[in-house]
User: Fold DNA fragmentation factor subunit alpha from Balaenoptera musculus.
Amino acid sequence: MTEVAGGPSVPEPSEIRALKQCLLCRNHGREQHGVAASCLEELRSKACDILAIDKSLAPVTLVLAEDGTIVDDDDYFLCLPANTKFVALAGNEKWAYNNSDGGTAWITQESFDGDETDSGAGLKWKNVARQLKADLSSIVLLSEEDLQMLIDVPCSELAQELSQSRVAVQGLQNTLQQVLDQREEARQSKQLLELYLRALEKEGSILLKQQESKAGLGDERDAVDTGIGESSSEIALTSQILTALKAKPAPELSLSSQDLELVAKEDPKALAVALNWDIKKTEAVQQTCHQELSLRLQQVQSLYSLRSISARKSSLPGEVQNPKQAKRDPT
Assistant:
């Protein structure tokens, strides 16, 4: 059997190249387009057509949307996974990270190597996020620093860590902001109360009583102060907790529940030495921390109770409709 002259030629196996699925967008662009290409040149050509890039702005450079890596080698292109996202840059245009492009990075390219590696901030917020994933009630127990850290994390990154939708995570971040705002309002209320009490002292009603008590208890205070100086100043609190106690008004609102417990259990004399406070002020702060801790634990317990009641209510319709249970009723 003879072949027909001039018939279609069969391509060599080496000439057949598989198509790779890719995503295309412009710099700072929100729209992305799905295309399939077998090589970089084909992808570049389709980018000009789909993204309406003026060919007079050549050369057109393709970079990874995630980190701005220039892709100019076909072998490297073939090694990339399917649905890799590319940004098309025309002429002298420079790549800039866009937090709306759905990339995996959430910080700028310049700070990626330094900030997260050196400070460990990325690992810290992820640990707090996992704590919330296990139990949302732990929001009440977080410190103000942890709350602010989760609020500042880009929504897409937090959604990925929590395995939730962006809408749900945005609602969660709004709740975190409300908790933070409530603590700030409580702090401002306490500051106003302190100002009011100081005003009363200036009028003399409280100041006179304090002066009289100082005269009678001077020797006792000296003895107490001496006792503080002789006691051990070694405490289990971190410098971060001590700084919060010294510098922040209403420090109990800034600390996490774990830190509050440490402050409440600390020896008053040793804590007074570490803070350079008198024993009465130290004990007052410890009492305030203990009260705040009790309040938070009560809130968590209330949330658990509400969950339990809600679960029981949701199961009642099924129990009423169960015919076997109806037959057991003797009446």
Summary: The radius of gyration is 33 Å. Residues 1-8, 100-119, 223-232, 320-327 have pLDDT under 50 and may be disordered.
